[in-house]
Structure prediction request, 355 residues.
Amino acid sequence: MAYPGLIQRIALDVNSSYVRQQAKIRPLTQLFWECTLRCNMRCRHCGSDCKISTVHPDMPFGDFEKVLLRVREVYNPHKLLIILSGGEPLMRKDLAECGRRIRALGFPWGLVSNGLLMTDARIDELLASGMRTATVSLDGLEEDHNWMRGVPNAFERASAAIRRLAGESIPFDVVTCVNRRNFPKLEEIREYLISLGLKQWRIFTVFPVGRAASDPELQLDNSQYRALMDFIVNTRREGRIHLSYGCEGFLGEYEGRVRDHLFSCQAGLTIASVRIDGAISGCTSIRSRFDQGNIYEDDFVDVWQNRFQDFRDHSRFRTGECADCRYWKWCRGNGMHLRADDGSLLMCNLKRLVY
Prediction:
């Protein structure tokens, strides 16, 4: 892989300076609420390894509401997006009521869903409750999506939800987990999503945690990974659908070409989460080893403002393969979700592009 040219290096330096400034001012802009661990699918790549049976009781909304009441004492609620996640958020019968109460406090809110329960009636209810944004997962065409999700009618239901939401005025996107099975069909998937009216598409690849850690069918090899980056570049150039890559890590020469921004892990800088057991962390993909507190024991605002050291200063992770890496000042050791409980690096995306 070619080292970034002068113009790209300047952009990366400016971005690094901006990230360091964010670490100082800590502008909270997104707060995830893991409102349930219940799920109606058996996804092969599930990072949390959710089960259909209840692993942990749903968090009562009143407990999370106390966090929001405290947060709005310090932060402008209109500038802080609340994202409901799971499990599958729509497993909660009271989800629309939760949304109404979040909106009543002044916060915009959205959700991440597998689409299985997103009937027209449920979407109408969510929109009436103030839903401002949504993400639905579609991991391939019918056979591949159903294989990934472990539910026979998953593709049909997700497609119907996508078609409906694509016609609404709220910001909406589809997220696709690219793996060895659907990789050869990316162009077909793109055309199908365009046919549904979709404007925003996001792709991610699997990192080795949860069920995905022991499933080789989910992992792209290095040549496929580079080809995926080229597919994203070409699709963005065509402009028929807006495609971007997820936040998996620093991508060297592809920085500025596959995302709308240069790489940075925003967990603990602008993004926080409250998990099902009350744990306070950066995002729900990050291992529990990096929890910073708990809403049942700590003041959320105090935790956000005064903890999160590892999230804001990655220097202790500059060991092993990161110790002498010349990309460190731009990468900072990749995203926090790629760090194991002991802080070691699970995967380096940059190395996948150099083979």
Q: What stands out?
A: The first strand starts at residue 30 and ends at 34.
